[in-house]
Amino acid sequence: MSMFKDAVHQTDRLKERTRKLETAWRRAEDGAEQVELAAVELQSLGLPLNEVVDSGEKILQQARERGTIDRVL
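Structure (tokenized):
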């Protein structure tokens, strides 16, 4: 392959990786926003956020121990 074709190929691969990273970043931002909204909603309902988080951690740990974590997530 010529140097030019090799450079074009590498550029295309980098563009694809960049698109994937941008998509992942947007999903992470969306997820963070959803977490913030859920926290506000829980607080507005008068639920203690730390207890809700602790309960969630326990549920995830139990699912890991049972090997059913994929169904929980």
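The chain has one domain: 3-72. Helices lie at 3-44, 49-66, 69-72.
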